[in-house]
Amino acid sequence: MRETAYNAYRRSSYVLAHTIISLPALVILSATFAATTFFAVGLAGGSEGFLFFFLTILAAFWAGSSFVTFLSGVVSHVMIGFTVVVAILAYFLLFSGFFIARDRIPLYWLWFHYLSLVKYPYEGVLQNEFEDPTKCFVRGIQMFDSSPLGQVPDAVKINLLKSMSGVLGFNVTAETCVTTGVDILKKQGITEMSKWSCLLITVAWGFLFRVLFYFTLLVGSKNKRR
């Protein structure tokens, strides 16, 4: 406070220092979260998948931290700032594509979908999990599990598959793959960009909010460097 009052260093120095000292904590938090989640849940991709998952978590924490830092420069009151952050993050989550697929979001809210900080890491992690086109997630007899027919005996399901084969013109057995990872991504509307593009955009959001934080200090600070 004393150094700021006497204009001892620039606002850019403070923003840079604030950014640097926050990085080690973000790396440790991201590594801990990724290590405990990736293997416990059994996510796919092996070592390369884990590396991308870790980088995505780190980028998401970086973007979120930068966003909160920017809002702290805009809203100086702690409780008001907390309320604003929670409200905006709720909208980020709502329109990220997790609750509502992109294709089902009303056109007048679609712009917020692309502003969501949750959208890009969410889509990147989903692609990291389901990008393998050779991996099958639903086979013939399993397609009935999420319908009222899921309770009928397997023998009846097999007979239904035979009837469907006659109508469709090709053989559908109990082991026929009917849903791949690519199908899941298409159903979620995740077809616009690659997982690495999602990662880079998330990182870019973090840098953008750090720059905006600098401008909030430049405009809002009462101390003017001479």
Please give a quick description of this structure.
It is built from nine helices and two strands; from the N terminus they run H-H-H-H-H-H-E-H-E-H-H. The protein is mostly helical and 226 residues long. Helix 3 runs parallel beside helix 9, helix 6 packs antiparallel against helix 8 (181-187) and helix 6 packs antiparallel against helix 9 (195-220).
> Which shape, going by the Cα principal axes?
elongated
The value of Rg in angstroms is: 24 Å
By helix and strand content, what is the structural category? mainly alpha
User: How many DSSP H or I helices?
Assistant: 9
Largest sheet: 2 strands, antiparallel
List unreliable stretches of 5+ residues. Answer: none
Report the portion of residues in β strands. Answer: under 5%
- Total beta strands: 2
What is the N-to-C succession of helices and strands? HHHHHHEHEHH
Ends distance: 17 Å
Spatial arrangement of strands, main beta sheet: 1-2
- What is the arithmetic mean of pLDDT? 86
Structural key phrases:
226 residues, mainly alpha, two-stranded antiparallel sheet, 9 helices, 2 strands, 65% helix, 4% strand, elongated, transport, ABCG_transporters, ABC2_TM
Please explain how this structure is put together.
The chain contains 9 helices and 2 strands. The chain has one domain (1-135, 181-224). The protein has 226 residues and is mainly alpha-helical. This is (rape) hypothetical protein. Its main location: membrane.
